[in-house]
Amino acid sequence: MSKTVVDWMNRDLLTVTPSTQLSEAVKLLVDRHISGLPVIDDAGKLVGVISESDLMWREQGLEQPPYMIFLGGVIYFQNPLTYDRDLHKALGQTVGEVMTPHAISITADTTLPEAAKIMHDKKIHRLPVVDENQHPIGIITEGDIVRAMASV
Asked: Where are the domains of the chain?
């Protein structure tokens, strides 16, 4: 019988909302030594995740996408909408402006191998655990899965 997420997830869950000031979310991450937070709406439903990766946009800066001017028009070699999105993220002041929306989540009855596969395939380090109403009830990280492996 496989171990399930409910046995290893962290139930001491901190959350933020899209309107939370970015500085407040950063302070929570640093003070609690965590790398990401679920983002919930006013009804308590999961709407995204803010992580250290989302915050890297602020420090790394952005380069204008390559383009050329031809016959008085601008031809971009990359999608300029991607640049606009990244710029908005880099300049954001609230969690909602910087977070990764539509977070991938799992339920408490997900097995640890299933959770590990999702994290590996999606290249993410944590998964919010939600109930049937999409309310976060916990979070499981790569470290939690490794601890479960060590307990065998």
From this structure: 5-150
Dihedral (C-alpha) 114, 46, 140, 131: value to the nearest 10 degrees?
Answer: -70
User: In whole angstroms, how large is the CA radius of gyration of the chain?
Assistant: 18
Per-residue pLDDT of the chain (152 residues; tens, 9 = 90+): 579 999 999 999 999 999 999 899 999 999 999 999 999 999 999 999 999 887 876 565 555 656 567 677 666 556 656 655 555 555 578 999 888 999 999 999 999 999 999 999 999 999 999 999 999 999 999 999 999 989 87
Q: What is the C-alpha end-to-end distance of the chain, expressed in Å?
A: 13
Regarding pTM above 0.85, the answer is no
Q: Which residue, 78, 68, 132, is CA-closest to 106?
A: 132
Tokens of 4: 């399930």
**Class at the top of the CATH hierarchy for domain 5-150:** alpha beta
Q: Contact, 18 vs 12, CB < 8 A?
A: no
Q: How far is CA 22 from CA 41, 62, 80, 105, in A?
A: 16, 19, 25, 22
Q: Name beta bridge partners: 75.
A: 68
